[in-house]
């Protein structure tokens, strides 16, 4: 069936696969620091034994939530709370050991596993916050409230010494009450597009939708995170040249955004098809560093506005 002309979902053809496969690193071939800027195709449990401790400045984890979900070659079946906690214990402490002494870690989850994730974070790290992301999309329910929220737990190894670049994650919001003092705008700017204020980011994020079919970052991965969301984490909690590690990489969003923002990266993914998506996106990121919803170092209110043509500039501004 022909696909709609506005559908920009990433496609990987059979012809591209041999070349993309060559770019992948297998756990058995890890040595020294050859995992830098690579996608490791393998099981996280085997890979963790081969990676050195304390190599990552920032770890971003988007694990299978405790829901039955088909990840292609890997099917996750919903577990009891006790078994999900046990599953997490099989890899989470080992992942935390990969963090440098001044490193930061984010782990995503939904409301069902909030208690388990909070306990796991507090066991291994200093828990600093829980970000709530209102992702809008969610399946309606006849006898329950639709779930449209996700959590992103934020922890650090050393609560006195960690990276947090707040100026890099300010958000541009329309000013509702444009106060003036002595006739001049108070904390806001007048532009051709209207009156805006750069605001400090809170732990409630309602400026991000999940990738959808007309967005160039969209893939067929069932639980892909938006590039803009990962960009906020990376800009706030790492510096250019730092190493960002994603142990459950999926379609490659963390590595792609790290590359676009001048960080080193390493990701692990068990499904070869998702590794191919990651590699194709990484190749595309060599010539196109745009992140939808981030323009000239400012996060705009939405990430859903189309990107302009590449020659039109670095990025777009949102509605
Ligand atoms: C929630 S998804 C991550 C999605 C990702 N954030 C993105 O934007 O595409 C979790 C991923 O972990 C992978 N995975 C699950 N268990 C794994 C394991 N033991 N080793 C490596 N990858 C695994 C799944 O195949 C899935 O793609």
UniProtKB/TrEMBL annotation:
SUPFAM superfamilies: S-adenosyl-L-methionine-dependent methyltransferases. Its EC number is 2.1.1.-. One of its GO terms (biological process) is methylation. Residues 57-279 form the DNA methylase N-4/N-6 domain. Keywords: Methyltransferase, Transferase. The keyword Transferase applies. It is an enzyme of class 2 (transferase). One of its GO terms (molecular function) is N-methyltransferase activity. GO terms for cellular component: cytoplasm. Transmembrane segments: none annotated. Gene3D superfamilies: Vaccinia Virus protein VP39. Coiled coil: none annotated. PANTHER family: RNA METHYLASE-RELATED, TRNA (GUANINE(10)-N2)-METHYLTRANSFERASE HOMOLOG. Belongs to the N(4)/N(6)-methyltransferase family. This is Methyltransferase. It comes from Pseudoprevotella muciniphila.
């Amino acid at each position: 069936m022909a696909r709609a002309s506005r559908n920009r979902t990433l496609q990987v053809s059979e012809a591209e696969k041999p070349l993309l496969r060559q770019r992948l690193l297998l756990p058995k071939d890890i040595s020294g620091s050859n995992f830098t800027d690579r996608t490791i195709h393998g099981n996280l449990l085997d890979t963790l034994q081969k990676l050195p401790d304390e190599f990552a400045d920032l770890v971003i984890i988007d694990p299978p939530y405790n829901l039955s979900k088909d990840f292609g070659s890997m099917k996750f079946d919903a577990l009891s709370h006790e078994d999900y906690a046990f599953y997490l214990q099989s890899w989470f402490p080992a992942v935390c050991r990969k963090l440098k002494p001044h490193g930061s870690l984010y782990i995503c989850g939904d409301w069902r596993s909030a208690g388990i994730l909070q306990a796991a974070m507090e066991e291994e790290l200093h828990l600093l916050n829980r970000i709530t992301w209102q992702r809008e999309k969610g399946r309606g329910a006849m006898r329950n409230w639709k779930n449209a929220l996700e959590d992103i737990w934020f922890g650090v190894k050393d609560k006195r010494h960690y990276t947090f670049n707040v100026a890099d994650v300010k958000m541009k919001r329309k000013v509702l009450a444009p106060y003036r003092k002595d006739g001049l705008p108070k904390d806001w700017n007048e532009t051709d597009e209207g009156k805006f204020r750069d605001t400090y980011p809170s732990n409630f994020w309602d400026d991000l939708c999940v990738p959808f079919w007309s967005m160039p970052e969209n893939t067929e991965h069932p639980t892909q995170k938006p590039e803009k969301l990962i960009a906020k984490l990376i800009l706030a909690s790492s510096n250019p040249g730092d190493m960002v590690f994603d142990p459950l990489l999926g379609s490659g969003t963390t590595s792609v955004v790290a590359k676009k923002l001048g960080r080193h990266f390493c990701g692990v993914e068990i499904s070869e098809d998702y590794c191919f998506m990651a590699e194709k996106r990484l190749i595309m990121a060599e010539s196109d560093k745009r992140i939808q919803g981030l323009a000239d170092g400012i996060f705009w209110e939405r990430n859903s506005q189309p990107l302009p043509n590449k020659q039109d500039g670095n990025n777009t501004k949102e509605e």
